[in-house]
Amino acid sequence: MTDPDPKTPDPAASSPEPPEGTVVEPAEGAVRRLEERLAEMTDRHLRLAAEYDNFRKRTAKERTEVWSKAQAELLGRFVDAFDDLARFAQVNPT
């Protein structure tokens, strides 16, 4: 067997017609399908961006609430300790 000459084009490869049995989508159908796919992906992207933004806002709010609760708990403990100190300071040493 000899290899075909690389300079001569393959008649099957240069044929504008697809091989037999191949389904070819019309250009209008391909454009419409791609536009629908683009719209679907754009919608998906926008929804994911909105979901991420909501997540970011929710976590920031939760972080603020946790910080506020921690500060309130700490102040509550200080108040209890100062209360005890005030009562101890009023005790008569005799």
Rg? 38 Å
Q: Specify the biggest β-sheet.
A: none
- Helical segment tally? 1
Give the low-confidence spans: none
Query: Structural class, judged by helices and strands?
Result: mainly alpha
Q: What shape does the CA trace take? A: rod-shaped
Number of strands: 0
- Beta-sheet strand percentage? under 5%
SSE pattern, N- to C-terminal: H
Average pLDDT confidence is: 84
The assembly state of the depicted protein chains is single chain
Roughly how much helix do the residues carry, as a percent range?
Answer: 55-70%
How far apart are the termini? Answer: 121 Å
Secondary structure: elements and pairs:
Blueprint lengths: L26 H63 L5
